[in-house]
Design brief:
Elements lengths: L1 H5 L9 H25 L1 H4 L2 H31 L3 H26 L10 H7 L3 H15 L3 H13 L3 H14 L3 H17 L3 H10 L3 H30 L9 H19 L8 H21 L14 H10 L7 H13 L35 E5 L2 E5 L2 H9 L1 H4 L5 H6 L7 H7 L16
Antiparallel strand pairs: 1-2
Helix pairs in contact: 2-10, 4-5, 4-6, 4-7, 4-8, 4-12, 5-10, 7-8, 7-12, 8-11, 8-12, 9-10, 9-12, 11-12, 12-14, 14-16
Bound molecules: manganese (II) ion (2 copies).
One manganese (II) ion binds next to helix 10.
């Protein structure tokens, strides 16, 4: 119904001349703070906490911005409504700027630390993290029609989660004295807030024309996939990698404010329901990123940066305040690691067995630790193989369209089907990690 698309109304109207002027002003602001950074030797003096955070952020976010750029370019070319194509054009330009500015800022640190090579390299590697991120982004923004992709990118990622990484983290960065990072994050998020508005009129149009179920499903799939990614990225950055003195709110508190509160109201206002798994989501905000933090640490050679444990006595107290019960659950896992370090059994601070990895999100299947652990197995047999999932929503996504997802192989699938040759060295080679590019404890066990 082409006439219906004609009624798409741009919620944010801007012309090219004005857009360019605003972008120039943003760049001037961000780059002038960076010029000051180069003089201040910030990086050399910052803690292993913040170094781990910068490395994790830049080496997963820079290239995700380029994914978004091509996602918006597809909307510019194939969007049905003229107003949508217009907004998406600016979205494309925004995302190119976000990719460029973040790589440029990250490369500032290259002379101090080769880890930042991964800001670009990770996108081209078959390391387990890029495999997981790419699968999520490809599903949402590159392998569906332009309208579906717009809804999934806007609602699943930008309206819901980028605030966590760009607004909340920016506040932590400012408290940490990293004004360059804070300013840059803000300059990115103000663009996100504009170009994320394409989906609202699209969803309203669909609801009006009897396509609510279709739009709802797109949002439910994208939102869950992005939750898993941001749970690890923002969850670990905020509750572990941010130095104690710079922390204000926990990842869970930010989730409650930005996502469970604000995003829920947005959904309601455009005629959609809360995703069916809302209770699962709330439950996961208590546990999932804590489990992933344990995983990142005990499998640290599989990351290219230098992971930190961040469970000193003060940090444990903070975690216990923000997540009552943390000490009795996750704290006990860390006790085992710490006791092994104290006894000099460093080899036992690593995991040697491959973890079970979810066939949808590509992350470790994990739940609350200790006595609260309620293992629940989600799996499906399709064709000649068995697929494993971390949660009911990840299982639901696969089973809604197994033909679509059956060919994706997790890193562990690739180990067992012979895609990756046998042996540790071959495994690291496959993931693009030379011996120098394998994570070691950022504090050298101090
Ligand atoms: Mn962006
Ligand atoms: Mn964006």
């Amino acid at each position: 119904d082409l006439e219906a698309w004609e009624t798409f109304d741009e919620p944010y109207k801007i012309g090219f001349r004005e857009y360019v002027r605003m972008q120039r002003d943003k760049d001037i602001a961000a780059y002038s703070v960076k010029a000051a950074l180069a003089r201040s030797k910030f990086f050399e003096n910052t803690s292993p906490h913040w170094k781990a955070l910068l490395a994790m952020h830049f080496s997963t976010v820079c290239w995700a911005e380029f994914h978004s750029a091509s996602g918006f370019a597809r909307q510019t070319r194939f969007g049905r409504a003229p107003g949508m194509r217009n907004m998406a054009t600016f979205g494309t330009l925004d995302e190119i700027r976000h990719g460029q500015i973040q790589i440029y800022f990250a490369y500032e640190f290259l002379k101090h630390d080769a880890v930042f090579d991964w800001c670009h390299k990770s996108s081209k590697s078959e390391n387990w993290i890029p495999i997981s991120v790419r699968a999520a982004l490809d599903d949402c923004i590159h392998t569906r029609d332009a309208v579906s992709a717009a809804i999934m990118l806007n609602m699943g990622l930008e309206q819901s989660f980028t605030n966590l990484q760009f607004v909340a983290l920016s506040a932590d960065a400012a408290r940490c004295g990293d004004h360059t990072f804070a300013t840059m994050l803000q300059s990115v998020q103000t663009d996100e807030a504009r170009h994320a508005q394409i989906a609202e009129p699209l969803v309203k149009l669909m609801v009006e024309h009897g396509k609510k179920d279709y739009a709802q499903k797109l949002v439910d799939i994208a939102f869950w996939r992005m939750w898993k990614q941001f749970s690890v990225l923002s969850g670990v950055c905020m509750d572990y990698y941010t130095p104690m003195e710079a922390r204000e709110s926990s990842a869970k508190e930010f989730m409650e404010e930005w996502v469970l509160g604000q995003f829920a109201r947005t959904l309601e206002s455009i005629g959609l329901d809360l995703p069916w798994y809302w209770d699962d989501l709330k439950a996961e905000t208590e546990t999932f990123h804590h489990a992933q933090q344990v995983g990142l640490y005990v499998y640290r050679p599989l990351q290219w940066w230098r992971p930190i444990a961040a469970v000193s006595p003060d940090e444990r107290d903070w975690l216990e305040t923000k997540y009552p019960g943390w000490k009795e659950t996750f704290g006990r896992c860390w006790d085992v690691v710490i006791n092994n370090v104290r006894d000099g059994k460093f080899d036992e601070t690593y995991m040697h067995a491959p973890p079970v990895v979810c066939n949808t999100c590509g992350l470790e299947v994990a739940g609350a630790a200790g006595d609260k652990w309620k293992p629940k197995h989600f799996s499906s047999t399709y064709g000649n193989r068995r697929y494993h999932f971390c949660s009911e929503p990840c299982s639901w996504i696969f089973n809604e369209d197994p033909e679509r997802y059956k060919g994706h192989k997790s890193i562990i699938d690739r180990v067992f089907d012979g895609t990756i040759p046998e042996g540790d060295e071959a495994f690291f080679q496959y993931m693009g990690q030379s011996p120098e590019e394998r994570g070691v404890d950022g504090y050298d066990y101090q």
